[in-house]
Amino acid sequence: MHDVNILSMLISQLWWLLLVLLGLSLLRVFLPDLKGKIGEWAVQRQAKQHLDERYILLNDLTLPDQDGGTTQIDHVLLSPFGVFVIESKNYKGWIFGSARQKMWTQKIYKKSYKFQNPLHQNYKHTQVLSHLLADLLEPEHLHSIVVFMPGCEFKTEMPKQVFQGTGWVNYVQEFQTEVISAMRLKRLQLRLEKEVLDPSWQTRRAHVAQLKSRHHQD
Questions:
Q1: What is the pLDDT of residues 81-123, one digit of tens each?
Q2: Which residues contact 110 (CB under 8 A, 6 or more apart)?
Q3: Locate the NERD domain: which residues (predicted)?
Q4: Whole-prediction pTM value?
């Protein structure tokens, strides 16, 4: 009887250990997405706090591109003063990079990691939108913005159109000339909402697979 109790205790402890290991594995898999989502939520909160009803923020748009694939855009901000394409980055540590470099560097805890220049990444996004909205929007009224969270520190000069915290809001508010009528603004919103792909797990998986294939070819 005593042996049965010991075996039962061991099985119980092993079960909890397996649950912990499973939880850690899932955390490791989903942590990058979670960190990205935190950055996106911060931008949404900042827009709500600092921009009025003239601005329409669309979030997490996966759109078809000209090559038969997809592109995923964190935010598209529609306004009478232009359309702003926003890429958010939630990174810690030191950031090194210039406008022309293909890859930027994050240095944290004495380790360095390479990541794609977000300006180049967002250029792809603006090109997709320019093509998709060609009959409704002039290219000069489409603006690229990259937003880093305050948790990182740039050790090189921060390129133009790259901001930290709420700095991007000040940039948006510099545009005060109305170039898009209320009717055309609504048409832009309806076009994007019509073209955006269903934000399902399958859509996300297909987009990630496409990115990996593209980077492997590069």
A1: 999 999 999 999 999 999 999 999 999 988 999 999 999 999 9
A2: none
A3: 35-152
A4: 0.77
Tens-place pLDDT, residues 130-142: 999 999 999 999 9
Instruction: Check: CB of residue 149 under 8 Å from CB of residue 89.
Output: yes
